UniProtKB/TrEMBL annotation:
Gene3D superfamilies: P-loop containing nucleotide triphosphate hydrolases
Protein name stated in the entry: Amino acid/amide ABC transporter ATP-binding protein 2 (HAAT family)
InterPro entries: AAA+_ATPase (IPR003593), ABC_transporter-like_ATP-bd (IPR003439), ABC_transporter-like_CS (IPR017871), BCAA_Transport_ATP-bd_LivF (IPR052156), P-loop_NTPase (IPR027417)
Keyword Nucleotide-binding: yes
Any one GO BP annotation for this protein: L-amino acid transport
Keyword Signal listed: no
Length: 254
């Protein structure tokens, strides 16, 4: 298949119906200094939907997440969440709206206990329901309940990832962004982590899964986007991506 044919296939619109859309990103541009990283990115997530955002290192995934969550200011474009414009909003306002990110590398507080890390998750949102949400998190992650007094920095990588997700759940997210949740985990823990993500999805939580583990992500996602050099090159159903040899080679390297 020619490059032109690939490009034609990758621009198909896989946006969700407006009535169901929870997150609607249109024409998002941004970067660092004078270096443009995001070049007019469009992405939509519906309520209860799991969407995979795939791309190689340096494709723009982390910059997209940071711009989405208020850690970086967008240069242009729109970020609407629950019908409210959040583009350029302070990250605290983004959290208050229910758009919660579990960042790449976990970013837990290693010198604080497991309990203290979890409690910080509800500092900005859902503080009044902290006790109820703690019980919910402990129901999902029994290991965290067993280690509430343990310093987070002394936990294993898998346990730290559980803590990072638990901390995100403490804020009662309407949309949970999981940035490379399988990074650095053993194959067994990767399976466990994706089983957990499937459980959260089964409970109706909308998830934006940002992953380099292509096979696992596409197996679980309702829809997928592929970002390359700051632009979306594909959006559609996972099977459409996997069934095209040209697309797999061009954008997934498989």
């Amino acid at each position: 298949m020619s490059a032109q044919a690939i490009e034609t296939q990758t621009v198909r619109d896989a946006s969700t119906p407006a009535a169901e859309t929870l997150l609607d990103v249109r024409g998002l541009r941004g970067g660092y200094g004078r270096i443009e990283v995001l070049r007019g990115v469009d992405l939509q997530v519906a309520r209860g939907e799991m969407v995979a955002l795939l791309g190689s290192n340096g494709a723009g995934k982390t910059t997209f997440n940071h711009t989405l969550c208020g850690l970086m200011k967008p240069w242009a474009g729109s970020v609407r969440f629950n019908g409210v414009e959040l583009g350029g909003a302070h990250y605290r306002e983004v959290v208050r709206a229910g758009l919660i990110q579990v960042p790449e590398g976990r970013k837990i507080f290693p010198n604080l206990s497991v309990m203290e890390n979890l409690e910080l998750g509800s500092f900005t949102r859902a503080r009044a329901r902290r006790a109820q949400n703690l019980e919910k998190v402990f129901g999902i992650f029994p290991r965290l309940k067993e280690r509430t007094a343990q310093l987070a920095g002394t936990m294993s990588g898998g346990e730290q990832q559980m803590l990072a997700i638990g901390r995100g759940l403490m804020a009662e997210p309407e949309l949970l962004i999981l940035d490379e949740p399988s990074l650095g985990l053993s194959p067994l823990l990767v399976e466990e982590m994706f089983a957990l993500i499937g459980r959260l999805r089964g409970e109706g939580l909308a998830i934006l899964l940002v992953e380099q583990n292509v096979g696992q992500a596409l197996e679980m996602a309702d829809r997928a986007y592929v970002i390359e050099n700051g632009s979306m090159r594909f959006s559609g159903r996972p099977e459409e991506l996997l069934n095209s040899d040209a697309l797999r080679r061009a954008y997934l390297g498989v």
